[in-house]
Amino acid sequence: MTAAVLPHPLHPPVAARPLLAVEGLQKRYGGLVAVKSIGFAVRPGEILGLIGPNGSGKSTVMKLIMGLERPNAGSVRLDGTEIAGWPSHRVARAGIGLVFQHSRPLHRQTVLENIKLALLPDNLLRLIADPRVEAKARVIAERVGLGAVMDRRPATLPFADLRRMELAKAIARDPKVVLVDEPFAGLTQGEVADFSQLIRGFRDEGKAVLLVDHNVKSVAALVDRVLAMYLGERVAEGSAAEVMRNETVRRVYLGGAIETAARPQSAFSGEPLLKIEALDVLYGKAQALQGVSLHVHEGEFVSVVGLNGAGKTTLFNAVSGLVPYSGRIACGGEDLSRRTPAAIARSGIVQVPETRELFGEMSVRENLDLGGQHLPKAESARQLDWLLDLFPILRSRSGQMARTLSGGEQQMLTIARALMMRPRLLILDEPTLGLAPVILEQLSKALERLRQTTPITVLLGEQNVTFALPHADRVYVLEHARIVWEGTPDRFAAEAGTGYL
Amino acid sequence: MLHTLLRSPLLWLTVIGLGLAAVLPLWVSGYILGLLTVAYYFGVFSMAWDLLFGFAGEVNFGPTFLIGLGAYSAGILNGHGVPIALCLAAGAAAAVIGGVVLALPALRVRGPYFGLTTVVAVLILQNLIVVFAETTGGEIGLTVPDVISIDAATNYWIALGFMTVSGLILFAIATSPVGLILQASGQDPVEAGALGFNVAKHKLAAFCVSAVFSGLAGALLVFYMGTASVGTLVDVSVGVQVIIAAVLGGRRTIVGGVLGAVFLIAAGELLRPLGALSTFVVSAAALVVILFVPAGLLGLLTRQGQRA
């Protein structure tokens, strides 16, 4: 760090020389070219946004830089040193840090000890920690806003604090180049502001920062420059505003205007398939759901719209019998409260969780076959054929292991697997979570076909209104554990749209 | 650090336990001392195994590969007139060398394959011992000319002392910064690498440490019993006993292994009247603990302290 402060008579000014220079980077997985000849440079004190929809190869670029994957060709230079192909621990020690989106922290240790871990040298003989490590870790914990929870264990922390801890670990390594994977995923407005401030702190210290994210908008306020990728290639580079104006980027990203296609309510009559009355769920002292009542008719498509933390997942988990509740949930007139989750699933209520829960080490085909396990063979084959027509991408990927699919493809597979079980009621929990608009549109089309060609009943939970409205016959708005609005999608914009559009 | 250590119920339980164990020869018969001596050596096997499983996150299904290497190297050398002290050192060294040769390629493979490699290593060692029967004694076993002592109490104290020192060293490593890095490597190797830690190096080092103690304890056990045989030191079932003892005592506790080993041997002895059924009862009891008290016996004992 001191080297950057001292005057360097022999070298050009520090700001002119890139800290991280990537050239002609390429990565193939079997026949799939994930990254095609990507190149860019990040200077000290600069924030570059690496943007692209799911499956565009942006995460692969990040892994190639960090040494988590080996490139097939190309060069990665850190402050002039070629590091392409080095193992990650050498890359890390050379001065690159990665802020993971998810990690498995040390569960038996406190937050402070987790941060101390990042301060330790890679030395087998260091059996006693340097006493300065403790003080340093405390300072870092305070800096990222973990001061109050230093002595707690990671498992007891909310999501935002876990992300703070990841950031703290990166700060502890004092890297020259910081890579941040989806900096704002899952954070509230206030937390986004906090994190932006912390990331600006990296820039002010003269570090080179690379933010990897889905869309320009989320990082526009933070980045100096943006590089947009699509299908492994660069499609645009420039300021956030320039990239947002770029024709290709707009084509890749833009979805159409919201068109609703609700069927008249009179089409659905009689006893509803799913009926929830006065549902209350408590997590300890926190009220996760309060007096929620809703119903879904046979063949109806109902969307529950709500921001993160509104209680959507809790609502679905209650229906699936995964959380204790008070109130009444009935399916086809039968009370579900005494049934086990397995019995509820067998009765035809199938939930697609937002975490997807695929069998990563099994092929696409095997995942689907598992879903159709209880069907007779011929019927299972017919169902499979129909699903592969519904999601053509899965047909071309059928031999691939599920974990190698992109996020969007995994989501389609999860839905397809649920459909293999021929559900009476399909519950989709945030299927668009982490998906780029282009994938979203494919998914949206698949849902549309599903709605038009089958009498399926769907209960969809979404944060993304542009995805939730077009298919819905009826919409509920869930806010802070309560249903605050119910109506048809065409009335939504006028009556409940503020805050969503 | 010292403050929290002094307040830990684990420390006081250990001190009291060791104190009682040290004066035991004044009260009990030579026969029981003999059983405990073996139990203590098995305790070291289990503690060494826990460093790999509980901290580095690698399941070594072949602890007896390391134990057997140590025991047989020491025994064979002693047969050629090498003094006991040198034999012990050679046994530990042989275990480390064998361990490195095994672990270098094995740590490259992912997930359950490391465990499978270690099982195969045991089978190979077992086979070699039988094939080279002229040097190793084959299926009959190897008799060593020297023993450390013929006095039951002396042997008991040596085993107790060795176990205490081994436990201290292993516990110190586990709670040191290196132990922290090991745990991180076991839990999330990708992130550990991205934090600048050479995961393979740390796991290999853990394997070596585990090998030193396994090999040394194996060699000591030979000079206590005066014999080495495949059935008592190398067989896969012996390895399973070591693993059960460690898991029974409590994963990630190091010292739990001793508790588990003593429990297994004591239970086997108490149930001896049941004949062949005793193995079944002990195994069933072990299964119950593993299924319903995954934290192990030590977890059960210290739960009160952890809650406070």
UniProtKB/TrEMBL annotation, chain A:
Molecular-function GO term, any one: ATP binding
Transmembrane segments: none
Phylogenetic placement of the source organism: Bacteria, Pseudomonadati, Pseudomonadota, Alphaproteobacteria, Hyphomicrobiales
Native organism: Methylobacterium isbiliense
Protein name (record): Vitamin B12 import ATP-binding protein BtuD
Listed PANTHER family: HIGH-AFFINITY BRANCHED-CHAIN AMINO ACID TRANSPORT ATP-BINDING PROTEIN LIVF (PTHR43820:SF4)
Keyword terms of this UniProt record: Amino-acid transport, ATP-binding, Nucleotide-binding, Transport
Similarity remark: Belongs to the ABC transporter superfamily.
Domain of life the protein comes from: Bacteria
CDD domains for the chain: ABC_Mj1267_LivG_branched, ABC_TM1139_LivF_branched
TrEMBL record, chain B:
Main localization, broad class: membrane
Signal peptide: none
InterPro entries associated with the record: ABC_transp_permease, LivM-like
Record's bilayer topology term: Multi-pass membrane protein
Record's keyword terms, sorted: Cell membrane, Membrane, Transmembrane, Transmembrane helix
Subcellular location(s) per record: Cell membrane
Pfam families reported in the protein's UniProt record: BPD_transp_2
Transmembrane segments: 31-52, 59-77, 83-106, 113-133, 156-183, 204-224, 230-248, 255-274, 280-301
The keyword tRNA processing is annotated on this UniProt entry: no
PANTHER family hit by this protein: HIGH-AFFINITY BRANCHED-CHAIN AMINO ACID TRANSPORT SYSTEM PERMEASE, HIGH-AFFINITY BRANCHED-CHAIN AMINO ACID TRANSPORT SYSTEM PERMEASE PROTEIN LIVM
Protein name: High-affinity branched-chain amino acid transport system permease protein LivH
Organism: Methylobacterium isbiliense
